[in-house]
Specification:
By secondary structure, the chain is mainly β. The chain has 1 helix and 7 strands, in the order αβββββββ. The strands form 2 sheets. It has a 5-stranded antiparallel β-sheet with strand order 1-2-3-4-5, covered by helices on one side.
Length: about 80
């Protein structure tokens, strides 16, 4: 897994780039943000009326499935 794969995946899944390695998307009542670091990715989920939830994963712990277009290890349903 690498930053390019995550960036391309985020673009295909309706995330808007808000910087070179930062993406965000708004769903019904929550904001999803993906920040790509040097060797990891950080997912921030902000839901109205709840504290933000933050998850970080190393690239080596993620796996991309091109058939389903998902990244196993990034859970956006928190």
């Amino acid at each position: 897994m690498n930053a390019t794969t995550i960036s391309n995946w985020a673009s295909r899944n309706n995330f808007l780039a808000s910087g070179p390695f930062t993406f965000h998307r708004y769903d019904k009542d929550r904001r999803l943000a993906i920040e790509i670091k040097r060797t990891s990715v950080v997912v921030i989920i902000e839901t109205v009326g709840r504290p933000p939830r933050i998850k970080a994963r190393l690239f080596k712990d993620l796996c991309y499935d091109p058939l389903k277009d998902i990244i196993d290890g990034i859970d956006l349903a928190i």
